Amino acid sequence: MRAAVGRAQGRRGLIVASFRSPYNFRLTAGGWVSERTVGGLVSALEPVLKQWGGTWVAVRSSEHADLPAHLDVPLEQPSFRLVWVGLKEREVSHFYHGFSNRVLWPLCHDFWERCHFRQDYWRDYLGANARMAQSLGKASAPGDWIWVHDYHLALVPHMLRKLLPKSRVALFWHIPFPPAEIFGLLPWRRHLLRGLLGADGVAFHVPLWKNHFLETVSRYLPGAEVDPDAGRVLYEGRQTWVEAIPIGIDVQSYQPTAEHVRRSLQLRRGLRKRQVILGVDRLDYTKGIVQRLEAFGRFLQLYPEFKRRVVFVQIAVPSRTRVPEYVEMTRSIEGTVGRINGQFTTEDWVPIRYIYRSLPTSELIPYYLVADVALVSPLRDGMNLVAKEYVAANAEGKGVLILSEFAGAAQDLKEALLVNPLNVEEVAHTLGLALRMKLAEKAERMARLRERVLRRDVFWWVEQNLGLLSREGRSAASAPVPRGAADGSPSRGA
Predict the structure, then answer these.
(1) 246 exposure class (CB count in 10 Å sphere: 0-12, 13-18, 19+)
(2) Number of other residues whose CB lies within 10 A of the CB of residue 333
(3) Which contiguous run of DSSP H or E holds residue 171?
């Protein structure tokens, strides 16, 4: 039975804040229906709030203007409350498409030359964060725990201190945190660092991002006392714990059913029982899709015996279609696919199958099952949940994971074949190694990967993050993990 997290039961409520709503809504002949949005954050947190209950505060998109500002979701089987923050179109353009995705996103992924440091972007980023903080203040009750997510809302923790001085606030930063000299290029660096340190706990996926943050605070925030060994910052009379907590997935959602297996067999027949290399990405320049395609083309040159015996399936989920850089990137990917297919296609074989749309989990799992190799090769990634999803679905241990060493997941998934995604020759040769790998080695590598992915699932990740909120002056080793009935905090339940 799901453990309720309601004030009526006398427990603390869990309030989640993010830019993106966990659901899109579509009007049908039978009324409104809810559809889960695409993205790592939603994939990780939606099952937790479904199980625990609570409130999710997010920015309302223009197409949902006719829906109420508060509603219980999912509409088909409500389990938690969704509260929307309304922003004007210009505010969304400058705050999200501008400052978040043309300043912070490229900066944190080490693409600083793509940054647009515009004052109007900053002004609306500041305003949107203030609106989010105000909405959180209204949605919260004494004793609630507030969990803020990602770079869109970096100023919110400090703003909440003025509205809710006694609140417990955590923030999780889902993307890489760059080296100090890169983050230092940001004209508003002190504002963002102060904003983050309004939280009781700040967490990153891996120790490298954590260490970059602590070094940046030490270098650019006067008055801050940084203890890197304890993972603690003292600033303005408060202390903030800083941790590395790798995000997990809802493992049960990726366990294959008989229907998934049936669909995978259909896919295999449709692909003429060829070996399958799979790429799955949200369409973004950080994902290295063009470099991956080039590596596959080079693989076909180096290993001509695999011609007509292998198919590369690239699933690209449309993203940020209003940002000019993404429109240009889409053209580049399509052009690369066309060039490689034009070079190698025969009467009965097209080497690259390019799928440009979002697939629900039920359709994605059959692709994970049919894939002999998952090629996950971002140029930079905070974590990368596709790698963990592929491992979770691979119960029979017949697949091979090739993983970029620049993805946060590489810190966890060391039994994968690690590659430098910019080294086209290396990736091409690694594809040859993976496709020739003996079944016994595949099974051994996958068993070790699965043990770690299954143990550090999304619920483990949530408990570790909320553990930051239960700390006072204790060390990380002695801080308790919230367990619900024991201390009145949210519980995973049975």
Answers:
(1) buried
(2) 21
(3) strand 168-172
* pLDDT tens per residue, range 419-453: 999 999 999 999 999 999 999 999 999 999 999 99
Alpha-carbon span 345 to 308, nearest angstrom: 9
Q: Give me the domain span that covers residue 20.
A: 7-248+458-478
Both 158 and 91 in a single domain? Answer: yes
Can 94 be counted among the known catalytic residues? no
Query: How many other β-carbons are positioned within 10 Å of the β-carbon of residue 488?
Result: 14
Residues 233 and 339 in one domain: no
pTM of the model: 0.89
Q: Residue 40: which pLDDT band, with cuts at 50, 70 and 90?
A: low
- Identify any residues that bridge with 17 across adjacent strands, giving them in sequence order: 57, 148
191 counts as catalytic: no
- What's the CA angle centered on 22, arms 18 and 24, to 5 degrees? 125
The C-alpha angle with vertex 131 and arms to 124 and 245, in degrees rounded to 5, equals 90
DSSP helix/strand/coil, 133:
helix
User: Given 3-state DSSP classes, what are the helix, strand and coil percentages for the chain, each rounded to the nearest 5?
Assistant: 45, 20, 35
Cα separations in angstroms, 137 against 52, 145, 157, 167: 21, 11, 11, 10
Q: With contact defined as beta carbons under 8 Å apart, do 293 and 300 qualify?
A: no
The one catalytic residue in 174, 205, 212, 260 is 174
pLDDT in tens, 122-159: 999 999 999 999 999 999 887 889 999 999 999 999 99
CA 444 to the chain's CA centroid:
27
Does residue 205 share a domain with residue 57? yes
For residue 105, give the H/E element and its range.
helix 105-108
Give a yes or no: residue 47 inside a domain: yes
- The residue from 124, 372, 381, 412 that is catalytic is 381
Percent of the chain clearing pLDDT 70 (strictly above): 92
202 within 8 A of 214, measured Cβ to Cβ = no
More confident residue, 479 or 313: 313
